[in-house]
Structures are given as C-alpha cells and as structure tokens.
Amino acid sequence: MTQQIPLSDNAKITSEADDGTMELAPDLAYIRALIANVVFYGAPGAGDRGWVLIDAGVFGTKDRIKSAAEGRFGEGARPAAIVLTHGHFDHVGVLEDLAEEWDVPVYAHDLEHPYLDGRASYPSGDPSVGGGLMAGMSSLYPTRPVDVSSRLHPLPQDGSVPHMPGWTWVHTPGHSPGHVSLWREADRTMIVGDAFVTTASESAYASAVQAAEMHGPPKYFTIDWDASEASVAKLAALHPSRIITGHGRAMEGPEMDSALQRLSRDFRKIAVPSEGKYVANPARAADGSAYLKP
Predict the structure, then answer these.
(1) How many CA atoms lie within 13 A of 185 on its CB side?
(2) Which CATH number fits domain 5-286: 3.60.15.10, 3.30.420.10, 3.30.70.260, 3.90.180.10?
C-alpha cells in the first residue's frame, strides 16, 4: 500500500494577487482550473506578448484562463508562447482553442509531439491503482491527441525555455514520455507538472479540499515507474525553495523540501502501487515508440 507525506499549512503558498491568481513570485502566478493548475509567467501588466502560459487546463476552462490572463496582464493581452509540461487531457483541454485564438506558438518536448500533432493516443488509464473516484474513472479519461501541429515547436536543445529568460527545462519522464519540469536557478523555483503532486489526485475528495500532502505522480496515468522515480530524484537533488505542481497547492520552504527528499528516498514505498497495469510492464522505449497507439 502506498503512503502520503502530510505537510502543515506553513508549507502552502497562500499569497493571492489583486488579479485573483495565487502569486508565487512577482512574475509567477497560477490558478486552479477545475482539477489542474495553470501557470502564468510574466510581470503584472506585461501586456500583449509579454507573458507565457504554462499548460492549458481541462475542457471548459478557457474563459477562466482568459479572464485570469487579462486581469493579470491587461485586456486583450496574448501570451508570447504556450509551454507544456506534457499533453494529458487535463493539461491541454483548451489548448487548441487558445492557440488558435491567440495565434501563439506551442512548445513541448519532442517525445510529447505525437500526442500534440494528432499522430498518437496515450496509453489508457489504469483504474486499478490508487483507489478513489478519480482513479476509478481513469479508463474513461480522454487519451486521444490534440492537434496543434501548425503551431508546435520542440523545446530548445540547449535547455532554455522560449520567452522565459533564466529558466531551463528538465526532462522528467515517467508520467508521460516527454514530460518536462521547469527550473529557475536564481530563486530555486520549480514548475513540475505531474512529475510529483501535492494532493492525492486519485481521490475526488482530496482533490477538492487539497489537503497539503506530498505524493508521487498521479498513479492512474503514470506508465513508467522506474523513469518516474529517476525523475523525482533528479528534481529533489535541486533542492527547490518553492514548487508549483499540476495538482494541489503550491508549496515552499524547508518542510516542503524535506518532504520532497523523503519522497525521493522512499519513492517505491510511498508512490508506487503494489500492482497495476504499468507497474511490472511499463510502456517504455528509448525513442518513445512504445508509447504510440493508433
């Protein structure tokens, strides 16, 4: 049986900006768009093409994302880019609509491109892992790709993140083949997508109340646990001072880092299910080909 690592309220970042977003730093904020977080990079009032959107929520959240963006950056302000941690349905739900409406380039890791240009579906979710309503429904979650091929670009090979000076991307596969996390060395801030999360994403109740806990990646969509363990170890070794995950509240401080170190150290016991479709048989290939489904 897997475990969780409780965190006190002291580890939460609870600074709400005037625009209604949760602010992590003067140039970094996020909103919870139903079940997943959407991140905004750029100074308030940055204006048209002066900011970046990281991930694109679930279906039905376009107006919420646009309203938050306009409140933070100005009326009609479009991003310079959309950067994706990965392409699961809860991170690209309104990607096609926003990319078209804003006429904006989309950046993602090469191994994630088949799920963003219409070529391939993700492996199906595994409802047998994690318990809870969210996990139990996972076989019903969309796995078909979106298609933003006309706007899709690979992340630069030098590790930089377009339109985000001072940030680098880190390949953190396991939850998906081309999953990436974003890292800013200057203030040790990390945007981790679903490499690990701060709520029990398998449970509808936990997702609603967002109790402060450190967890591995959402179990029902994680398809390579060995790779996921290595990715968490890579991120823990950076000792971030603050984190924003794809699910759950943003966290900061020594207690958060201590919990992340424990997650990395005891990953097999804390995060990995005892059984499951992808536990013994990960969907894995060096070139990503094993992930592809017609």
Answers:
(1) 7
(2) 3.60.15.10
